[in-house]
Design goal:
282 residues; alpha/beta; Globin-like; Transcription Regulator spoIIAA; 5-stranded mixed beta sheet; 10% strand; rod-shaped
């Protein structure tokens, strides 16, 4: 591991490897009276994870691999595996991270014990502690990073689901559908609207679609441009489109933005648009 105090470091590594079960039990006792760690109580898998970390660190320092990519990779893999377990069992990150101070406490006691036995000066003891501390930091980093990655994945999934819900092309008759838009339309949602509507219109083999704006709060430049492009693209596909729910404030905004919808039928209400559509009323 290092040329400084190699024997002490070797002894610590051997102790961790030999006493991994005892150290795991000690950790269990430390957490026993804290209700936040109920998920770890009498849990064979958690016990195995504890023993695995102590053994991995112990074996690594025995083989002088403390700063090697190989040992760091093993410890990060352990952190990812521990995080995956907590995620699957609904243990929140703030609670799960409370486990690591117990690892630090136990490692500190082991290091202190061996440094005292070998009569090492304080400087050397701190140096040795920093080496083990660095390894535990790697485990904590991988653990937290895995939680964060999973959180991002879940947010992206929720975002995707919300986008799908926000573009509900509703068939009302063979070849005819309504697209009711609700809420605020930012650039990203406007772009998704254009893409998804064209896909759904093709899937449903539409010949006519009513885009209802009655649920839209405001219209900005991005949305107006995407809406204009959507209408042009629909017409290129042979799909007639009309706009309903064009309230006075929305029409004023569109005029101020310099966007023209002269080439498309516009209606004050969805009911008017439906009545105007000859296929629907026939």
């Amino acid at each position: 591991m290092d040329n400084e105090n190699p024997q002490t470091i070797q002894n610590i590594g051997e102790f961790l490897l030999k006493n991994k079960t005892i150290l795991s039990e000690k950790m269990d006792n430390l957490q026993n009276n804290d209700s936040r760690f109920r998920f770890a109580k009498n849990n064979d898998y958690i016990t195995k994870l504890r023993e695995e970390l102590f053994a991995t660190i112990g074996a690594g320092v025995i083989n002088q691999l403390a700063e090697s990519g190989s040992l760091i990779s093993q410890i990060r893999t352990w952190g990812e595996k521990a995080a995956d377990y907590c995620i699957k069992h609904n243990v929140i990150l703030s609670t799960a991270l409370l486990v690591f101070p117990f690892y630090r406490e136990i490692l500190t006691e082991v290091i202190e014990q061996h440094c005292l036995e070998d009569n090492l000066p304080l400087h050397d003891a701190f140096y040795i502690y920093s080496k083990f501390e660095s390894l535990l930091d790697q485990a904590t980093y991988a653990f937290s990073h895995t939680f964060l990655h999973q959180h991002i994945v879940e947010l992206e999934h929720a975002k995707s689901q919300m986008q799908e819900i926000s573009v509900p092309v509703v068939p009302i008759k063979q070849g005819t559908a309504v697209l009711p838009l609700i809420g605020d339309m930012d650039d990203e949602r406007s772009e998704f609207l254009q893409k998804r509507t064209l896909e759904r219109a093709t899937e449903l083999e539409l010949s006519y679609i009513i885009i209802d704006l009655s649920g839209i709060n405001t219209i900005n430049t991005w949305f107006a441009q995407h809406l204009n492009q959507l209408i042009d693209a629909l017409q290129l596909l042979g799909i007639d489109a009309s706009i309903s729910g064009m309230r006075p404030e929305l029409s004023q905004t569109i005029v101020q933005l310099g966007i023209s919808f002269k080439h498309i039928a516009k209606f004050l209400t969805l009911e008017q648009a439906l009545l105007h559509h000859s296929e629907y009323t026939s």
